[in-house]
Amino acid sequence: MIVAVLDANVLIPNALCDLLLRLAEEQVFVPRWSAHILDEVARNLPAQSRSAAERRIRYMTEAFHGAAVSGYEHLIPTMANDVKDRHVLAAAVAGDADLIVTCDLKDFPSESCEKYAVEIEHPDAFLLGVLDRDQTLVLGVLHDQAASTGRRGPRLSVPDVLQYVARAGARRFADEIGAMLPANLRVEALAGSVLTARIEARDPAQAG
Fold first, then answer.
1. Using CA atoms, how far apart are residues 121 and 101, in angstroms rounded to an integer?
2. When you count CB atoms within 10 A of the terminal residue's CB, does the N or C end of the chain come out lower?
3. To 5 degrees, how large is the angle CA 74–CA 112–CA 21?
4. pLDDT tens per residue, range 48-87
5. Domain 3-122 classified CATH 3.40.50.1010?
6. Structure pTM?
7. Are 141 and 38 in contact (CB under 8 A)?
């Protein structure tokens, strides 16, 4: 099974983070992160939603016991990628990861990663690859993700979730899934941007 380090920028947007972790629960891949990455997530979540940030990180650490990479710190100075993201590559090397899922592709030039056999993938490409392998699984996960909302805010539909995922960077993935939805759900998606704006105005923690 693929072992993937999830960079902070794919864990901060709520909808994208939730989707990736749900796919990990389905054993699509094995997630990895580090203390540095979780600290960055905590720092960048909305300050007014600190309790939600704490809940998310607590869930991540409890649900994925082996995900936290340790013993990577001494590798950080030896990495040759962008300085601010050397801790991410170091965690991938120490955690025997196959790839890093990140929005910051430019911070991981191929020459800095090839020697460690670590690939770099944008979340859009990563999710499209998962979709190509198992459309039924992905559609089921998205349905469950939408159905789980509504306890601390408005209930979201699958098109609503896809809008958040698209805004987090996985637009091609969201478009491809959107084309698979029944016509009535595609019409519903046209009104979704209004709901999205209302949710963000009330609770930025739900924003994707």
1. 5
2. N
3. 75
4. 567 777 888 899 999 999 999 999 999 999 999 999 999 9
5. yes
6. 0.86
7. no
Q: CB–CB of 48/143 below 8 Å?
A: no
Contacts 24+ apart (CB under 8 A), 197-203: 198/154, 199/153, 199/154, 202/153, 203/49, 203/152, 203/153
User: Under 8 Å CB-to-CB from 126, ≥6 apart: which residues?
Assistant: 4, 99, 101
Farthest-apart Cα atoms in the chain, separation: 54
Cα end-to-end span (Å), the chain: 27
pLDDT tens digit string along 185-194? 544 444 444 3
Distances (CA, A) of 153 to 16, 73, 84: 17, 39, 35
Residues paired with residue 3 on neighbouring β-strands, in sequence order = 30
